[in-house]
């Protein structure tokens, strides 16, 4: 926080923060201690003062979210519900779509009296087809946006920059895990691809397990902070004050230098869970970058979300990649069915080249069938998020899984497939 305030010092006229936080449920241990996500804690004390901000009467100094995915969820909600929002603000009454009694009371109190002038201004902004810079138009005193945008969050970086506009900085976050803090981002203005973190030596006892992309996992000796080498990759292992002993975080980092005597690392990918995994998150993100270039039509052909799955239940084990596209994508229009199926098949051949050496070796040996690319209905991954949160995932820290391992999640996406390289359109 201190480093952010050096870059953008708050003033009396610009000291408000708009946080997008999702509280989630609070449970209790047998001893009576409350259990919640750390990022949900502000909801359970007296520090937040949301009313002036959420009424849009005061432009915030900055917009923040724990993860880029959470910020994108909020922006997409605005895109789909802005007309309803404007009606509620104009008339000072709440839509019947909100049915939770406590939520209705809270939001009705927030709305207050009718505000037709504010509603008109928001309508004029949201009615424009071009959403580039919409955040600056809604809140003209914004100085920056801050959220974690490295790792699996990197896919959202360019989209947030689109909504923010060319002149609004997007600052990265620090490197924290549920188990303990790990690293500090010393240069928050860097893009995700070049962001590095300085390991916090007092946060835990850190060990580093040598790692090589594409190699079979072998049991090796770990090294401590003083034993890492610049240019090499490691999986992070921690022993924490709260009792975790030599716990593998499954995070793979690359040492790129030192800050004083602490290693400076870049996040590379999530480590495979075992020998059965044939591709990594990094492989999948690379494949989706390629797919975005192949299907981009300039008229809503953006990839909204994606996830991969190794399907062992078909005639031949093979990888399925589920992809959600923008609802206005020409790729999904019924009159383009034959062309779309053919294009999906051609895409599969190119995407296989992105899936790493383990995948390629197994394909060459005939142990894996042809990659299947499945397009799902718009909103399918939002349904996946709701299912995950209902199953106990912290709402505020939910990160869309890139490699699916839960049958319920896979079945939900399979039920929503509308176009596949191995099937026909089913709209």
TrEMBL record:
Family according to the record: Belongs to the IAA-amido conjugating enzyme family.
Signal peptide: none
A GO term, aspect molecular function: acid-amino acid ligase activity
Transmembrane segments: none
Keyword hit for Ligase: yes
Source organism of this protein record: Zingiber officinale (Ginger)
Ranges for domain GH3 C-terminal: 283-405
InterPro entries: GH3, GH3_C, GH3_M
Domain GH3 middle positions: 197-270
PANTHER family in alphabetical order: GH3 DOMAIN-CONTAINING PROTEIN (PTHR31901), INDOLE-3-ACETIC ACID-AMIDO SYNTHETASE GH3.6-RELATED (PTHR31901:SF44)
Organism ancestry: Eukaryota, Viridiplantae, Streptophyta, Embryophyta, Tracheophyta
Sorted UniProt keywords: Ligase
Descriptive protein name: Uncharacterized protein
GO CC, one annotated term: cytoplasm
């Amino acid at each position: 926080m201190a480093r952010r305030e050096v870059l953008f010092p708050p003033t009396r006229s610009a000291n408000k923060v708009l946080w997008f936080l999702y509280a989630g449920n609070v449970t209790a241990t047998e001893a009576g201690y409350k259990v919640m996500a750390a990022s949900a804690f502000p909801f359970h004390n007296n520090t937040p003062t949301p009313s002036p901000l959420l009424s849009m009467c005061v432009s915030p100094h900055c917009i923040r979210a724990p993860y880029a995915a959470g910020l994108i969820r909020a922006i997409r909600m605005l895109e789909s519900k802005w007309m309803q929002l404007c009606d509620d603000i104009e008339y000072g009454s709440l839509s019947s779509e909100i049915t939770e009694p406590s939520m209705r009371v809270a939001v009705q109190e927030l709305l207050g009296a009718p505000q037709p002038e504010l509603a008109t201004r928001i309508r004029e902004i949201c009615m424009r087809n071009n959403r580039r810079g919409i955040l600056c138009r809604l809140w003209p005193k914004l100085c920056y946006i801050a959220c974690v945008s490295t790792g699996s969050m990197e896919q959202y970086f360019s989209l947030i920059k689109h909504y923010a506009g060319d002149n609004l900085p997007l600052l990265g976050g620090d490197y924290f895990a549920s188990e303990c803090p790990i690293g500090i981002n010393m240069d928050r203005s860097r893009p995700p691809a070049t962001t590095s973190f300085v390991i916090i030596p007092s946060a835990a006892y850190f060990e580093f397990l040598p790692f090589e992309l594409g190699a079979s996992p072998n049991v090796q000796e770990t090294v401590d902070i003083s034993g890492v080498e610049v240019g090499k990759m490691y999986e992070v292992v921690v022993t924490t004050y709260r009792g975790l002993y030599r716990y593998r975080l499954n995070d793979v980092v690359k040492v790129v230098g030192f800050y004083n005597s602490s290693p400076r690392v870049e996040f590379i990918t999530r480590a495979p869970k075992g020998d059965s995994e044939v591709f990594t998150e990094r492989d999948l993100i690379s494949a989706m970058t390629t797919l975005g270039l192949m299907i981009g039509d300039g008229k809503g052909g953006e990839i909204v979300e994606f996830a991969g799955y190794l399907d062992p239940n078909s005639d031949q084990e093979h990888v399925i990649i589920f992809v959600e596209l923008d609802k206005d994508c020409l790729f999904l229009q019924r009159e383009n069915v034959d062309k779309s199926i053919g294009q999906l098949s051609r895409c599969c051949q190119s995407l296989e080249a992105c899936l790493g050496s383990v995948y390629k070796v197994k394909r060459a040996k005939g142990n894996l069938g042809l990659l299947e690319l499945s397009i799902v209905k718009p909103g399918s991954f939002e349904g996946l998020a709701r299912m995950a949160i209902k199953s106990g995932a912290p709402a505020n820290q939910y990160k869309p899984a890139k490699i699916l391992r839960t049958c319920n999640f896979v079945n939900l996406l399979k039920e929503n497939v509308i176009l596949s390289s191995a099937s026909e359109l089913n709209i």
